[in-house]
Amino acid sequence: MIEFLTSSDAIFALLTLTFLEIILGIDNIVFISIAANKLPEEQRGKVTNIGLLLAMVQRIILLFFVSFLVGLSKPFYTLDLNWMHLELSWQAIILFAGGLFLIYKSTSEIREKVSDPKHDEDEVKGKAIKSLQQAIIQILIIDFIFSIDSILTAVGMTNGLSDNHNYNLILMIIAVVISIIIMIGFANKIRRFIDKNPSIQILGLSFLILIGFMLITEAGHLSHTTFFDKKVGAIPKGYLYFAIAFSLFVEFLNQKISKKPTKKV
């Protein structure tokens, strides 16, 4: 167990996943804050912390459920045609459906944030909240909605790291707990930083497209899918880590350049 958690693959996965969990949690923080701001000032901080803790609990419960389904790798149906072979399992179905969901969710989120950045916030603002209980119920619903892509991202980043699914589950839980602790401690600072640098969140959503595509190919690989005698291979996670690190480095350079004062000729 310790050897797995201290391996380079696990460390890279943990760092990348924690970063993505925080980026994905920004909208969650914003909506929780909007719901909390409808209450008296003395209750706002309490509701915000309760909301983030509920998000953590919900994600851990969902992680157990999804990890159980992903662990069902035994094929229950085999399709064998002249041009295609497929061994269908619940693991492959969950990964394939999760990949499609991440691609759809991330592209629609990017489109919405470009065309109408305040659309979701306006919807939450329009809902009446008169008590602490109503705020917590609304936050629970918001947390559940935002937990889905978070969980699928965690599965995509850790699936295949270890043959022992429990090790992958522990790594996902550690990433979720760390990200929630960071959000509780630095929620306002993180939100202000993203407000000043909205391209970071767009970049994080773009990473989900990569993860979604990786989940689809991994589903094909684990189901031993072949097209015209060509096997579907899994994308090595090292490629994903490199793409994310390179994109963040380019974004860092862009931020540096944009903050430099332009010299007048």
UniProtKB/TrEMBL annotation:
Q: Which Gene3D superfamilies match?
A: MFS general substrate transporter like domains
* Family matches, as InterPro entries: Integral_membrane_TerC, MFS_trans_sf
Where is this gene product found? Membrane
**In which broad location class does this protein mainly occur, judging by the first location in its UniProt entry?**
membrane
Name the domain of life. Bacteria
Q: How does it sit in the membrane?
A: Multi-pass membrane protein
> Keywords for this entry?
Membrane, Transmembrane, Transmembrane helix
Where are the membrane-spanning stretches?
12-35, 47-68, 88-104, 135-157, 169-188, 200-218, 238-254
Q: Which GO terms describe its cellular component?
A: membrane
Q: Which PANTHER family match?
A: MEMBRANE BOUND PREDICTED REDOX MODULATOR (PTHR30238), SLL1022 PROTEIN (PTHR30238:SF4)
Q: Which family does it belong to?
A: Belongs to the TerC family.
- Return the protein name: TerC family protein
Question: Origin organism of this chain?
Answer: Mesoflavibacter zeaxanthinifaciens subsp. sabulilitoris
